[in-house]
Automatic annotation (TrEMBL):
<dbReference type="Pfam" id="PF00180">
    <property type="entry name" value="Iso_dh"/>
</dbReference>
<keyword id="KW-0812">Transmembrane</keyword>
<comment type="similarity">
    <text>Belongs to the isocitrate and isopropylmalate dehydrogenases family.</text>
</comment>
<feature type="domain" description="Isopropylmalate dehydrogenase-like">
    <location>
        <begin position="1"/>
        <end position="123"/>
    </location>
</feature>
<keyword id="KW-0560">Oxidoreductase</keyword>
<feature type="transmembrane region" description="Helical">
    <location>
        <begin position="93"/>
        <end position="117"/>
    </location>
</feature>
<protein>
    <recommendedName>
        <fullName>Isopropylmalate dehydrogenase-like domain-containing protein</fullName>
    </recommendedName>
</protein>
<keyword id="KW-1133">Transmembrane helix</keyword>
<keyword id="KW-0472">Membrane</keyword>
<dbReference type="GO" id="GO:0016491">
    <property type="term" value="F:oxidoreductase activity"/>
</dbReference>
<dbReference type="InterPro" id="IPR024084">
    <property type="entry name" value="IsoPropMal-DH-like_dom"/>
</dbReference>
Amino acid sequence: MATPIGKGHRSLNLTLRKELGLYTNVRPRYTLHGYKTRYDDVNLVTISENTEGEYNGLEHRCCREVVKKYPEIAYEEVIIDNFCMMLMKNPSLFDVLVMPNLYGDIIGGLCAGYWWLGSDTKM
């Protein structure tokens, strides 16, 4: 189910995601109480899109529009390299992360791999 590089045909992966309505990838990350990890009280959800951005060359920046309708939602845009540093230093700064597919895959893997290391692991 490879995604072809460049233009041409649409991958089977993208076709299945569109046909089945799998437009988002929601990944909760939280501290398992009673299991010591590097950070306590992590409760974070990453949300990334599955069918746009890098998959078909289209991207719609809809977060800005939604936040205009719901001013009670705290919203901040952060450059990805600075965000990664902030996330590793203090993941409890964040509750919900909404991002394009590529960043969602990278950040999701980063969260899964790093946070579950034991507290004695040095950075």
